[in-house]
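Long-time lurker, finally posting.

We've been working with Tetratricopeptide repeat protein (Streptomyces bungoensis) and I want a structural starting point before designing mutants. I don't trust myself to interpret raw outputs, so I'm hoping someone here can both generate the C-alpha cells and explain anything notable. Sequence follows.
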Amino acid sequence: MTGITDFDALRRAMAENSEQPEGPARNARAEELLAAAERLNVPLAVIEALGHQLKVYNYSSEKDRMFVPFARLLRMWDERPEDFDEYETHSLHWVFKWVSAGMLDQPHIPLASVEKWLGEMEHRYRLAGHSERAVRSAEFSVAAHVGDRDRAERAYAAWLAADRDRMADCHACELHGQGAWQVECGRDAQALELWRPVLEGEYSCAHEPHTVLASSLRPLLRLGRLEEARAHHLRGFRLVRAMESMRGAYAAHVEFCALTGNEARGLELLAERPAYFTDTGHPRSRMEYLAVVALLMDRLGEVGLGGQRVPGPAGRTWTAAELAAHARAEALELAGRFDRRNGTAHIGEWVRARMAQRPLVERLPLGVRTVRSAPPAPVAAPAGPAESGAPGLAALLAEARRLSDTLQPHALEAWAAVARAAEGAELDVRDRAELAEHKAMSQGPEGAALFERAAGLYAEAGDPGEALAARARGAYVRALAGEVDAAAAAVAGLYDEVLALYAGQGTGARQTASVLMSRARILMRRVYEGAEDATSGLVSPGVLAEAEQAVREVLALVRGHAGGDVRLTARGAEARGMLATLAERGGDPVRAAELFQRAATDFVAAGLPWFAVEYEVQVAALSHRLGDPAGSERALRAALEHGGPHVEPTGRAQLHLQLAEVLGGRGEAGEAAEHALEAAHWADEAGESGTLGAWARHQLGGLLLREGRYAEAAEVLESALPDLSAETHGDGAVVQAQWWLGDCLSELGEHRAAAERRLQAAEIARHWPEQQDHATLAHLAAESLSSAGLLEEAERAYARAGELWRALGNPQFLVRSLRARAWLALRGEDGAEGGRELMARAVRVCEEALEAAGDPRARDGLTAELGHTHRQFGDLLARSVAEEAEDEVIQGAFEAALVQMDRAVAVFGSLGADGLDSRTGAQLAAAWLETDLGRPADAAARARAVLAAYEDGPEDDEPARSRRTEARQILGLEEPPGR
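Top reply, 14 upvotes:
Generated this for you. Predicted structure of Tetratricopeptide repeat protein:
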C-alpha cells in the first residue's frame, strides 16, 4: 500500500494487478487499491478503482461480489456524471451486460429483479444513444435460460437485426452465443460454421477462443469429426487450465473425457482444480461442473471401478460411487433452485440430460499420457458345460479342433476351455493326447515334458506319426531353452523314423511335415544364435547350408501335398520365411526381402493374414536398409492391415511408430502424426507409457509442431517429458523434446516458459562434444528471454551464445548475437551508447570474416549479413534519440543513421539480383530519414530509384508490390496539397 500517493501510482498498481493470475489474491489486491483510491480524494480515482474491482471479480470464482461495486458506480453516475471521463462512461454502460448475465447466474436473485434490470439496461442504453443489440442479446439469454423458446427466438432475431455499436459484445463472444443457441436447437453443423472465424483466429478476446473450443467438443463428436474434437480439447484445455473464472469451459473438457473413453484423463482434470467442487461465487458453473463430475463417476462405475478412489471435495476421501451420488445430489439441488426461481423445469431437465449422456466414442486417443481406467477385457474363453446354456464338452472339442486345424487365433484359449470342461470327465486317449499337447504349447519352453506325455498318448491311440510330431515339437522347445545341440541330436532320430514311416504309408504328409519343420526350426536356432565365420563376420557357411537343406526338404514335401490343407500351406510359407532369413544372414538383403514378401503373400492367400505381419515387418526393415522408403511404407501398411486386432498392443504401437517415422521422413507430417498418435495409444494399452509411449509422444509432438499445431504439440510434449530419460531414450531425445517444446511455447507467446525449456535443453547439450546445438539453444533462449522482457537474463544468454559461435567459427551467428545485444542495450541501462558500441563490433566482426573468407558462397552469406548489420545499425541510431531531444541532437542521430543506410544499400547492391529486396528496403528507410531531415527532394529521388529497380519485375511479387507502395507513399509527400 505504501507508495500509492498519487493517481498515476494507483493506475500503475491497477495495471500490475490486472496482469496477475485470476483468483482471490488478485481480488484482495483490488480491494486494497480501492481503499487507496478513496484516500486520494479524487472522484475519478475511485471510479477507476471500482471498475478495476468489478473487472477482477467478474474474471474470478467470486462473480457474486461484483454487484456491490457496480451499484456504487451506478449511484455515483446518477449523482455526478461529470466525474466520469469518456472511457469510464463507456465502461459503466459496458458492464451492464456483465451484471445482467451475473444476476441470471445467481438463483437467489428473483427473476422479476432480472427482468427489471433488463428494462433498466434498455432505458439507459436508449438515453446514451446506444443500439439495442446488446439489450436484445441480454433478453435472449434470459429467455433461453428459463426455456422460453418462442421469446428466445424473437430476441435472437432482434439481436442479429440490430446495428452493431460500441456496446455490442465483441465478434468472438457474439458468435459463441449464437453458435451455442444452434447447438441447443440441435443444429451442430450450423454452430460449427458460425464458430469457424473464432476457431481460425479471425476473432478473439480474453475468453475466446477458449469457450468456443470447449463448446465445440460435443458437436464435433456427434458429427464424427473426431480429429478436430481431439485437437480442440488439447488446444482449448491449455487455454482454460490456469483461468479460475472458466469453470464452465473446464467442465466441458471433463465431459469430453467422459464421452470418449478417457476417464483417467478426466480424473486428472478433476485433481488439478479441487476448488471447483466448492467455489460458490458462480452457482451456474458449479452446477455444470458437478453434473459432468457425476457423468464421469457414473462411467467409472459402469466399467467396474465404482470403488476406485477419486479426487473430490477436500476434507475426506472419495470413491467414484460416493462422488457420483454427492455430485448428482448437489447438481440437482442447484438446478432445483434455478427452476424455483425461474418457474420452469428447464434447468433440471437440462442437468439430468447432461448426466445421462452415453459415450460418443469407445475411446478416442489423445496423444497425452493417460492410463486406462480399467484394463482391457481379456479374450473371452468358451464357457464350460456347467454354466447355463453353455456348449457341452463335445461342442467345445469340435470348436477347438476347428480352430487348431485352420490355425486360427485363440485356438489355445479354446483348448483351455476344453480342459476346464473336461475336469472329472471320461475322455478317450486321443482326446487326452490333444489336450496334453495344446497345454504343452501354452507353456512354451517349459512344455517339453508335456510333449513327451502327449507323444505317449498318441502312440497308445495308434497314431505313431502324431507321436513323432509331438516329440519333435518337444525337441524344439528344448532348443528354445538353449539346448540346441541336444535338440538337434534328438530330432535327427525322429527325422529318420518319420521318413521311414511316411515311405511305408504309416503316416501322412501333415505329420511328416511337422517333424521336418521342427528339425528346420532347431537348425535355424544355430543361425539365429549367429555362429559367425571368423573372416567374413557373417554366419558360418556350414551352418547356413545345413539349415537351408532342412528348410528345402520342408518345401519339397509340402509343394505337392498342400492342396486345401491350410497347415501344409502354412508350413511352406514359414519355410520361405526361413530361406529369407538365411539369405539375409548370408549377405543378400535383396533376395531376403523378396522371399519375406513371398512368404507374407502366401499366408494372406491362405486366409491367414495375421501370420504375414512378422514377414512384412522384415520387408520394411530390409527396404529401409536398401534405401527404399516406399517399399518400407508399403510393407508397414500391409502389416497393420493384416495384423488387425490379432497383433498385441506393443506390436501395434511399434508398427504405427515405424510408419510414422517413414512418413515423417518424406514430409507427410499430417499422416505421420496420426500414426504416432496411434502408437502412443497402443503403448499406453500395453502398459508401456513410460518407455515406448514416451518415445511415440516425443515423435508426435515434433510432427504436430511441423504442422503448426503448437498448442496440441505443447500438450503432448509436456506429457512426454516426465517419462523421457537419458538412460532409456538417450539425452538427445530429451534435448529435442525440450527444444520442440520451447519452439511451441514461443509460437504461443509463452516466452518465459519457452526460455526455461530452451535453457534446460542447453544445459544438457553443454556437455556434448559437438557444441552447435548448445550454441543454437543458448541463442534461442536469449530470444525468448528478450521477448519475455527479461533484459539482463537475455543479455547474458546472448553473450554466452556469442562466445559459443566464436569458438565454433560461425561469424554470421556471432554477428546476430551482437546485434541482438545492441537492441537490448538500447532498451536497458546501457542505452544508446552501449547499443552503438555493440552494433559497431558487429560490423567489425563481419568485415573481418569477409576478409578471411575464401569460399564464394560463404562470402555472399557474410556480405548479406554485413548489409543487414548496417541496416539495423541505422535503425538503432534513428531510434536512439528521444522525441523531446534538442533538434541538433536528433539531426545528428538521423545523419549518422543515414550513413549506415547508405552503406547497407551499397553492400546489398554488390549482391546483384539476390540483394535487390534488401537493397530497396534500405533505400526506402533512407528516404524516410531524408524526409525527417527536411529533404523531400532527396527522399523522392530515392523512392524513384526503388520504382525503377522494379520497373520490369512481376506485379504479383509481394516484396516488389510492398516496395512500390511504400515508394509511392514517399513520393506523395512531395506532391502539393490537393493535387
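Before you design anything, note these points.
Residues 375-389, 974-979 have pLDDT under 50 and may be disordered.
The longest strand covers residues 309-310.
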